Amino acid sequence: MPAAGKGAVCVTGAGGFIGSWVVQLLLSNDYPVHGTVRDPQDDDHNKYAHLKGLKGLKLFKADLTDYASLLSAIQGCSGVFHVASPVQSSSCSSKQEAEAEIIEPTVRGTLNVMKACAEAKVKRVVVVSSAAAVVLNPAWLEAGPGYNKPMDETCWSDLAYSAAIEVPDPTRIDSTACSVTMVFKYKRIAMI
């Protein structure tokens, strides 16, 4: 039973590695949780078996590119952890394919989550970034296996390096973060 005064929290991508741990942490602290997954009825592979027995968790079928499905899951929540990210379904043979399959849905999905949070009057949001925002930096590769500097908000992918190896533009996700931050400041929603 949820502790008095603790509002529900939505976790997008609740079926993923990070998302499922966030769900378990919230539940262990007596928060009711709305978890989004691609299809909660997907019993073919027991993909969500580890979630289905958790008391206090309600699973919602949601797609990042479908605003209405996100709003349905977020409605009634006081907080949101946006962990979900599109998964590459096949090997992308070009930068354009990767942008269409991963970057575009990531950007659109994050904006959909933020709009739904604003409409549902969510008080606090945590947005989990993509590893692409920090991982593409030749300095870390050159440092070798013993390099253990923590990556934080001062560490960003090197744009020239990203262009040289022809990967999708990580600034697309960074610019989305800037847009989201502006929306949240305007709507006065606390965001991390």
Fold and architecture overview:
The chain has helices spanning 17-28, 49-52, 67-74, 95-119, 132-135, 138-143, 159-164, 171-187, and strands at 8-12, 33-37, 57-61, 77-82, 124-127, 190-191. The protein has eight helices and six strands. The model has no long low-confidence stretch (mean pLDDT 80). With 192 residues, the protein is an alpha/beta fold. The protein has a single domain, classed as NAD(P)-binding Rossmann-like Domain (Rossmann fold). α4 (95-119) runs parallel beside α8 (171-187). Strands 3-2-1-4-5-6 form a six-stranded parallel β-sheet, sandwiched between helices.
Keywords:
192 residues; alpha/beta; Rossmann fold; 8 helices; 43% helix; oxidoreductase activity, acting on the CH-OH group of donors, NAD or NADP as acceptor; NAD-dependent epimerase/dehydratase domain-containing protein; NAD(P)_dehydrat-like
